[in-house]
Amino acid sequence: MRKKLLYVTPSFQSFVKADLQLLKNHFQVCINHYPWEYKQYAPVYFLRQFFALIPLVFQTDLVIVNFGGYWAFWPTLFARLFGKKSVIIIHGTDSAAIPEINYGSLRIPILKKICGAAYLMTDRIFPVSESLLKTQLNFDPKILNKNQGIETIFPKISTPTEIIYNGLDEEFWDFPAEIAKEENSFLTVMSYSQFDLKGGDLILKLALALPECHFYFAGVDANDLSKKTPENVHFLGKLSPEKLRERYQKSQFYFQLSSFEGFGCALAEAMLCGCIPIGAKTNHIPQIIGEAGLILAKKDLQLALDLVQKALLLPNKKIWSKKARTQITQNFTLKMREEKLIKALKLL
């Protein structure tokens, strides 16, 4: 009989759905979820979760919490009290405190305390990249406290950790040979709330300086921005996975110019679809790109402009597109994540 697994999550991004699917291949999965994004109701959800989790944790064999946050406290506490094993998967915002760019759950005092308590009580922490344990942020000049990661912010926590990279579905995010790339086209994926965090401000400046190129923003609507944007900038709004795949397949380059990025799933998706990556030298982005793209050392317009000009002059762009896909299929597939995650869970 399969073991029972309780999966606690505040949200259902594509990587969360992928994890749930692979976990269902090995466990009986029960999900605990509240819409924690409505922060004004967090005390209500915190109380409701208390009563809901007592029987759920008691009846389960293993608890997985996705992201550190308010929702991680009761599951890890009850798992400890009932003699169950628990794991927290950390992704980025739960490992940082960067007030200069309004990023990181750990910049909020009460949330920092709750996350710290959960990280102390859980049996294992599974970061999706090494940078979530310890990293130095030298890309964005605005960031003052450059030392980030849970080992830096919580030096007294000795909970065992294991790096388990995110995995991408290489069959869904494909790169058909018959699809032609749009020349001199650049794509980036972000929400409006992430605009400056993921380098949207810098990309708009690049668009103004490069009128012969086309810049596409998926996840952002034109009405979201109050300022006027250049005519070569196109806002696509929120896209379905299928529509996003089409845009990846048509785009020649992909930007991941984040000031902080726990992993970079959209970057890896784009590379699987043959986009040549241009990424920030921060967190795990250079490791995802490898030798298959270009790295921007600093968030600086002139440096970015020079790098984009270099990208536009790359010979044999089709070969670069294939290299980008190969980099992901050799290092960051869903199958690789499944094998490592299931092995780690079964050893608990």
TrEMBL record:
Originating species: Algoriphagus faecimaris
PANTHER family: GLYCOSYLTRANSFERASE WBBK-RELATED
GO terms of molecular function: glycosyltransferase activity
Domain Glycosyl transferase family: 176-325
InterPro entries according to UniProt: Glyco_trans_1
Name under which the protein is recorded: Glycosyltransferase involved in cell wall bisynthesis
Cytoplasm in keyword set: no
Keyword terms, alphabetized: Transferase
Pfam families in the record: Glycos_transf_1 (PF00534)
Keyword match Transferase: yes
GO biological process, one term: lipopolysaccharide biosynthetic process
